[in-house]
Amino acid sequence: PLLSQNASWFESPGHCSVVQGTGGGLAIVYHAYVAGSEGEGRHLMLDELHIDSTAGSGWVRMKRTHGAPSDAEMPIP
Fold it and tell me: How far apart are the two ends of the chain, measured CA to CA in Å?
């Protein structure tokens, strides 16, 4: 899956949309809960995407694979 639970802060990522950023890059926008604080509501999340050109696959991938879903702020691509 493109999104899965990370080992730090967030769990249950879901309901995503893919958008084009102001700089022309792709991003996935979704929501997730802070682990252990589900009653406080969901948080808006954003991760940059890229098109994998390895062997011409053309699959959409997370640009930052470590710690995804993100656990830090990042700019809109």
Answer: 22
User: Max CA-CA distance within the chain?
Assistant: 44
Backbone angles phi and psi of 33, in degrees to 5 = -95, 150
The β-bridge partners of 34 are 10
Tens digits of per-residue pLDDT, 30-65? Answer: 888 888 888 888 888 888 888 888 767 788 888 776
The DSSP 8-state label assigned to residue 36 in this structure reads: T
Which residues are 31's β-sheet partners? 14, 44
Instruction: Report residue 35 as tokens.
Output: 């682990």
Please name which of 5, 74, 20, 13 lies closest in space to residue 46, comparing C-alpha atoms: 74
Q: Which amino acid is at 33?
A: Y
pTM for the complete prediction?
0.70
Cβ neighbors of 54 (< 8 A, separation 6 or more) are none
